[in-house]
Amino acid sequence: MSVDMNSQASDSNEEDFGVNSEEEEDEDDGGDEEDQGDIASYYEGVASDVEQQGADSFDPEEYLFTCLTYKESQRVLTEEVNTVAAALKVLPAVAKLILVHFSWQVTQILERYVSSAPQSLQCGVCLQVVRRDSLLALPCQHSFCKACWEQHCTVLVKDGIGVGISCMAQDCSLQMPEDFVLPLLPAEELKDKYRRYLFRDYVESHFQLQLCPGADCPIVIKVQEPRARRVQCSRCSEVFCFKCRQMYHAPTDCATIRKWLTKCADDSETANYISAHTKDCPKCNICIEKNGGCNHMVSQNFCWMCLGDWKTHGSEYYECSRYKENPDIVNQSQQAQAREALKKYLFYFERWENHNKSLQLEAQTYQRIQEKIQERVMNNLGTWIDWQYLHNAAKLLAKCRYTLQYTYPYAYYMESGPRKKLFEYQQAQLEAEIENLSWKVERADTYERGDLENQMHIAEQRRRTLLKDFHDT
């Protein structure tokens, strides 16, 4: 018995997938209004203000992707199933299992399951002797009674298993084709669930497809080349890394960001004391609070991160962004090495956390800029277009700050050497220009438009240079 992909799509209840009609999708195109202070769209609409020339025009984050609806995703999968089924002369259900095994890389599919074994009239699970026509077997020829197969499939589908339902025989990993499973499921509701799980597994195993991780979102992202790049869903606006479906994390790679986030979770109690918003002023010892994204504490002219004199940071290099390793630590006691390891982690964690908090504070600045532009437009002091550069400056600041935040997990796991020194140098340059941009955005009224746009250009240039040299290499 064979069930093709199209028949699944027609039998399944699309509402369970969150798929609406085209008319309903059109009505939702406007989306919800942006939450107050949200700068989720800071990647859009700033190109004209930071025009790149020559070699600098290369954008290391440029990535081609397509947002597919449920029906479009089904069409892509069906075409590849038909191609493999015709080439190998197998049923579409079997072709799907082969495709899943090879991550849907059609050109690499070279073989299929072939085996034979004698049938038995005894069920291998309940050990009951049954009539021959009551025994069912997969191509592996392991025979079991229909009742045992039904119970096996029902339990696994209720547990959320789709493609992974395999033969009941011990040490047999042969997976069951869908046209074998579907007739064994006793209720239509269970069959619908199974179809959804199959669709999920087909998409997740496909090297060019990813399900949007947004809540109840049916959109599938399609790319030509699977890489750790930023993609955004056209339906729910969720932004994520295509490769790992986690938050976008350039320049840190997927494996490293997983290690970092796990470490942060494991060491959360250890790092609690540095997660507070307050510090003691290095000059007067009064408890102070950071109320803006910029790290320049104006009152006493010091750096929020290292508490050092702001003037000593210089215009080229930020010493406080580089951890100074102890070259003799390998010759010291285990206790000393453990203290050094903790010190290093806290150094990078504090800077990671600080930029995350700066992003939240700068979201408030963004909202104030929006209100200020609205007020000026209402008072006939220009149009939205006239003041758009302020809006774009705040978005670009968030974009740069976000990239800078993710440089610290990258640096933490980086081996010492010339490449790390280059990275730290570029990281420091980016940090310096972001602080300059943050200062000017927070005080936009005191700076000329040309001065602010020039600072935007410099900051974005630093960001792109770092990503070009270190992102996904």
The whole-angstrom Rg is 29 Å
Please give the domain count: 2
As for the CATH topology of the largest domain, it is Four Helix Bundle (Hemerythrin (Met), subunit A)
| Strand runs, count | 11
Instruction: Report the biggest beta sheet as strand number plus sense, adding barrel if it closes.
Output: 3 strands, antiparallel
Task: Outline the fold blueprint.
Elements: H1 5-11, H2 22-27, E1 65-68, H3 70-88, H4 92-101, E2 135-137, E3 143-145, H5 146-158, H6 178-181, H7 188-205, E4 209-211, E5 220-223, E6 230-232, E7 239-241, H8 254-266, E8 278-280, E9 287-289, E10 296-297, E11 302-303, H9 334-378, H10 388-405, H11 407-413, H12 418-442, H13 449-470
Antiparallel strand pairs: 1-5, 2-3, 4-5, 6-7, 8-9, 10-11
Describe what this molecule looks like in 3D:
- By secondary structure, this protein is mostly helical.
- It folds into 2 domains: 5-29 and 63-241, Herpes Virus-1 (2-Layer Sandwich); 256-470, Up-down Bundle (Four Helix Bundle (Hemerythrin (Met), subunit A)), CATH 1.20.120.
- The chain is built from 13 helices and 11 strands.
- The chain has helices at residues 5-11, 22-27, 70-88, 92-101, 146-158, 178-181, 188-205, 254-266, 334-378, 388-405, 407-413, 418-442, 449-470; strands at 65-68, 135-137, 143-145, 209-211, 220-223, 230-232, 239-241, 278-280, 287-289, 296-297, 302-303.
- The protein has a 3-stranded antiparallel β-sheet.
- Helix 10 (388-405) runs antiparallel to helix 12 (418-442).
- It is elongated, with a radius of gyration of 29 Å.
- The model is unreliable at 1-31, 110-120 and 273-278 (pLDDT under 50).
- It catalyses: [E2 ubiquitin-conjugating enzyme]-S-ubiquitinyl-L-cysteine + [acceptor protein]-L-lysine = [E2 ubiquitin-conjugating enzyme]-L-cysteine + [acceptor protein]-N(6)-ubiquitinyl-L-lysine.
- This is RBR-type E3 ubiquitin transferase.
- GO terms for molecular function: ubiquitin protein ligase activity; zinc ion binding.
- Residues 119-324 form the RING-type domain.
- Residues 1-43 are annotated as: Disordered.
